[in-house]
Structures
1.
Amino acid sequence: MTILPGPDCTTMTEVRAGVDQVDRELVALLARRFAYMDAAARIKPERGHVRDEARKAAVIANARAEATRLGVPEAVVGDLWERLVEASIAYELAAFDRR
């Protein structure tokens, strides 16, 4: 099935196919992001360097700004990124401990 851009969809089947495709792409992007967490755990000299509140705030602010630029709900993106960053920190701590 050809995946249509959202504005071109005329049926729920087309919408669902597009959403499913975007979800696959998002999971692939998350896999790439978590690979960076593996690298960070390998590079950082101490476990105490994993959590960086200033960096966390900057990452979330950047995501919110990009959401605003793209016209999507900034608060929703901020909430998602809060969870994503916390999950990334937990993942990185576990990766650090495995090392």
2.
Amino acid sequence: MSVRKLPVFISVATVAVLALSGCSGSPSAESTATGAALTCTDSGKSSDAVKVTGKADAEPTVKFTSPLTAKTTERTVVTKGKGAAVKNGEAVEIAYTAYNASTGAKLNGGGYGKAAGLTVTVAETASIIPGILKGIACSNVGSRVAVVVPPADAFGTKGNTDLKVAATDNIIFVIDVKGKVATRANGKDQKPQDGFPAVTLAKDGTPTVKVPKTDAPAELKTEVLKKGDGGLVADGATVTVQYTGVVWGTGKVFDQSWGKGGPATFATSNVVPGFAQGLIGQTVGSQVVIVIPPALGYGTTGNTTAGITGTDTLVFVVDILASA
């Protein structure tokens, strides 16, 4: 994604165990593929062997005999929720606990009760390890599932030295699907400000941006088109957004999340300064326009991969869907 600090966005930076993919967080400027559909994952002997007890809104007690392995990712439904099944391209909030299936060691966890869960977009292009996505896809909202993930759907052949996960270790995730996250801003419409690009929305929420034929402002400018009633985006928060980015001088789209498998999740500490400044202090559910001068974007070097020069002002239309 072209708001990132070079060379890459990091995925879900505040949740170490879920930054497992080792790749960039959001679709890159050069990526145009739409996320492929994820199929439902069946249970197996290994996932059935994970015994899970405890209340739905609290961290569960998890018992298993290690080492536990599976040839392919397996998912056992511990408790089936009453909500709708999660479909490809939808964003959901989850709580989770993770274990090394070989050693039995707990790796990480969180998001239970009133604590903010992790927002995950269910698409193959999402920068979360495939095993987590396979555990969530087709699960009903309110469900608790046990997932056994082999290396091919986790860290691959490298393992993860920080988490003390070897290249041959399986990982166990116990995941609570807390709820679905809106895929577009749902805040109250606000009156557009003079001098800003005009934004029109398709039926699915995809914005079209028309840049005025005037000089770009020299300073960062932010406009709220929809005012959400959710929590404030804090400095350093991990946010889930839909976005479109265009160059002021040409109006050309150089990057967007729309049509690429669903919303993007990233930390505000790992984007270009103007993008972060435009989001911090805004409320979840809002749609904002951020006009970013070169000094707060890519500076004098620009971003040749995205077709951005050192003098280009950037315009982003951002739907703020979640913040943690």
